[in-house]
Structures
1.
Amino acid sequence: MDQYNSFLRKHISEFYDLTEEEWNFVSEFFTLKKLRKHQFLIQQGQQVQEEFLIVSGLVKSYEIDENGKEVIIQFAKENYWVSDYFAFQFHQPATMNVDCVEDCTFLALSFENREIICEKIHKMANFFRKKSNRGFIGLQQRVLSLMKETAEERYTQLLDKDPDLIQRVPKKMLAAFLGVSRETLSRF
Amino acid sequence: MDQYNSFLRKHISEFYDLTEEEWNFVSEFFTLKKLRKHQFLIQQGQQVQEEFLIVSGLVKSYEIDENGKEVIIQFAKENYWVSDYFAFQFHQPATMNVDCVEDCTFLALSFENREIICEKIHKMANFFRKKSNRGFIGLQQRVLSLMKETAEERYTQLLDKDPDLIQRVPKKMLAAFLGVSRETLSRF
DNA sequence: CGCGCGATTGAGTAATTTCAAATCTAGTGG
DNA sequence: CCACTAGATTTGAAATTACTCAATCGCGCG
């Protein structure tokens, strides 16, 4: 568990350094979870009790549209947090699926425990606030790119911004993320 | 100023009730701003020092694409917060424009002051954390709707979810928000 | 060696955009 | 109060774009 704790501590220290005391308190609330490629972290219809910090591996969050086609909302890898946040926040059954594109290791934090941490440790409230701000900004960029740019532009920008991803994810999934058919993507 | 302060206090109390002391501290950091229809709250290229809580009125946030067409990221009205959050967060010049669709009243909060408030008042860190979470979830829904649904479905859902908006916003703006040409929208 | 999955290519189809023109509407000045 | 004008909306028709369906190609794995 130590190696995972040090991952978490380093992750948090991007924004705040915790004292030993704070750290001992916080780290208790996380639990380790491992999944293999193709396994579900979250499945549509389930209750979503936890959010997950990805220690290693890569997942995709997606929904299925009325024609049965995957619509990928986001890919998430090391140092990203992932959950079905709507379901998580409002205690609803998941509308999303999250499944592992690679073997994965996660640190899980329940909703209740996150609230406890944030009420107790001022720095952690600010940590999650800043994380959430970043996430918000990232999604706003995504909305803009969906609306302003063609799928081809989105593709080349993704190649540029996150070349790593292209190596780790099959093109049909990239297509589902960019919002075009795989045939169209392969004509770029 | 009292009426605006009571608006703010009520707004915050959706999540937390502040003590008199806390409230006196917090309220000092907000300043009032009024603009008329068609005036800019934020203009592309400017520094963005503040975020704004809308007390009354309605604004649109948008960018201009390479063909000179408006792409509307969001509408915001009473009780919404608005800024160019990328620029605000990272101290970059604005890429967005925010302008008033109606006469507006805002309560402005600078980045530095927000940080002060959040470092000082634990409840406010949690308040902004929760606000940001909500915003994140809202944007995630928006990404999904852009990818899963046709513009026509998005239109009828908007009519359903926010009928108020249709009254207050010309259809050409709705088109720019939904991601279709105004001609196509008028054929629905 | 052959199977299966992912990626590519081709052809026809459906949907949306663009350009153009006509119509409608709200606000202005006389 | 009415006429006028600018902006907003609608409608038509052509052009563009992306989609679907189908067939083919390529590669890794049993």
Note: Chain A touches chain B through 31 residues (CB under 8 Å).
2.
Amino acid sequence: MKAKPETDFFYMVYEVVRLVPYGRVTTYGAIAKYLGVKGSSRMVGWAMNASHSHHSPVPAHRVVNREGVLTGKNHFSSPTMMQELLESEGLRVKGDKVQDFKKFFWDPAEEIHL
DNA sequence: TAGCTGACGAAAA
DNA sequence: TTTTTCGCCAGCT
């Protein structure tokens, strides 16, 4: 059964985020690009916001902006929770920014061969 | 109903 | 080189 990618855009975002390995992070643009809507990077972030309505636990803490900044930390249970979660996975977070972000960056378009 | 906002990114100046 | 502006499109007021 072929789902409707157009309407399941949010769902696709959740899956990609869920595919992010432990101790790795990705960006909104990378996900958008992977989905073919690189121009709609904002929609990816919006999907994260909608993830609150979603039942599946989406590791949104592994998704940061292109600079590696925890832009969405404010949307978590606690603004520091996102940093704690990332540090808990072995990542180094300094002032809401992921250190060595490029090293921990996980690009679905590069790692996942569709 | 119509308009504004928003967890971003890239291009232009 | 850095800063500013525009585009994306769905959800909310």
Note: Strands of chain A lie at 26-27, 63-64, 93-94, 97-98.
